[in-house]
Structures are given as structure tokens and as C-alpha cells.
Amino acid sequence: MAQQRVTITDVARAAGVSAATASVVINNKEKYVAPQLRQQVLEAVERLNYQPNLVARSLKVQETRTIGLVLTNITSPVTPASVRLVQRHARQQGFDTFLAVSEEDLSLEKNIVETMLAKRVDGLILCPADSGAVEHLQYAASLIPVVAIERPVPGTCSVVTNNFEISYQAALHLLAHGRRRIGVIHMPLQGSNTRQRIEGYRQALRENGSLDETLFFETDYVGSSAFDFACHLAAVQQVDAILATSQSITMGAVKACNQLGVRVPRQLAIFGYDNVPWMELTSPTISTTQQPIEQIAQRACEILFAALASEPAAPRVEVLPSQLVLRASCGCDSS
Q1: What confidence score (pLDDT) does residue 60 get?
Q2: Structure pTM?
């Protein structure tokens, strides 16, 4: 059996440092690293017999006029807007776009990033699969410009939206309509944006004495069990409102109410997430949260191509505001 190639991540782990620090030492970059940390890295390199990836090391001097775009969910109706805008901006700059989808799978994402580095992309725009495991992305950022979208990555420029604040406002809006028994159906917690949305809901409900953790249910990232959870909340738990963290979950809640004969919003209010076209075509129309999807993609492109033009920005998180779209499903007048 062939021996598995030692990676820079392995070296970093053995040395007790970040992948970015290991990269600075191994690639002899003109950045300060404490002598003790530098020695730890060099000893780990020798101990593990690490052989540098020459293709990766030559990325910055072998321009391919290609950028990578890695998204988490190709089935989401909000994805095409991001893809279309990034591709358009890249073409205007004379770049091609290499698109890949991680399906919220960290292992798949790691393979995708490694493949893109091997293909010598000049830069990367990416929505991380797991906000808590980003060492491989920080390593990529030590080689090429990387911009994270929707979920921040420490050490990179990240463009996100105000998930906590807008979700807090959505829950307050339902409470203002007199809803007190409010259920929440959410995506997996591995994404920081999902955690922030849930915490926004929790904070508003807690402040108003309406927080009931037994009314919180987690589905997968495509919302495959949202319908079943919504049926349970409506028929068994007898909630008077449902908050969702994605448009697919919102769709499951609408379908459940239709099948059960639950009148929206008279018996049960629904507040969705992501303003997609079908929400204006249902009866009643669906109240939801409008994320600045195109603005996020636009800003990510501006940052990335500025960096590729030798104008790198200091790592930071830029927050663009979402908005509430109030329609009939929350109890507002749809006229």
C-alpha cells in the first residue's frame, strides 16, 4: 500500500501551529514568525519527511486567469444569482470560473480546495461547509487570495450578512402579532450563519417569555424532513407560528399546512428565509427574510480581484444587512 503523502496540515499539527504559520516558514515568506515556532515547524518537517507541493508553491507566479467558486448547495434558488454575478465579474476581468459544490460536506470541500489548488486557480471565493473547521482554507489563503462568503473564515476577508439581528427582528415581528407558541425548523448547526439565525430567534423568544426548546427541530441542509417536522409542530405541538432558516424549510412548512388544512395565518403564521419567486405566488403570500445575495457576491468579487491586482486587503469581516419582507403569512395585510 502506497504511503499517504504528508501535507502541510500534518506538519502544522505536529508542530502545534496553524497551517498558515507552517506555510510562512516552509515557503520562506518575509513575515515574522517567532524563532521557537519556526524551529518547531522545521523539526516537524524533518521528522515527517515532508516534501513541499511544488505545484501549490508556484501558484502565485504561474497565473492561470482562473478563479474557483465553491458553494454549499446547488439546489437552492439563491445560488444561481451568486454564480451568475461571479462569472460575469470574472469575465469582465478576463478570468474563467471553476465552479464546485461541497453539499455541506467538509471532506468533500477539502478535496475540492486541494483540486483547485492543483489546477492552479489564481483566487478563491467560497462559502465554508463548516465554520469550525477552516484550517485548510487558511492554508489556501496563504497561497492565493481567498474571500469567504456567508460564513466568515478567520484570517481572510469575509463578506456576510446580519443573520442574528434580522432573525431577532423576524421573531419579534411574530410576537408583535400575538404569536406565543412559536416553532423553529433549522438546518444543521455546522454553519455559523444557521447558528446565528437560531440564536436570533432564541433571544427574541427568551426576552418575551416564549422560548420552548422542545419546539426546535433540525433538518438537513436541503430541508428533506421539514414537512414532517412542520406537520408535528402544527398537529401535535399545536404551535401558532413557524420560523424557518431556509427557503426549502419554508416550503415544507407551507406544504404541511396545506395538507393538514391549517389556515395561514389565522391558525398558524409562517416566517420564511430567502426571498424567492414562489413565495409571492402562494396564497397567502409568504413573509420572509431577504438576504443581499447579489451584493455579497459583488463585494466578494471586488475584494478578490483587487487582491489579484496586488491590492490585498487586511483580513476583516464585512457585514451587509438583510431585510424583512412582510407579506400575508405572518398576519400582515398582503395588499
Answers
A1: 47
A2: 0.79
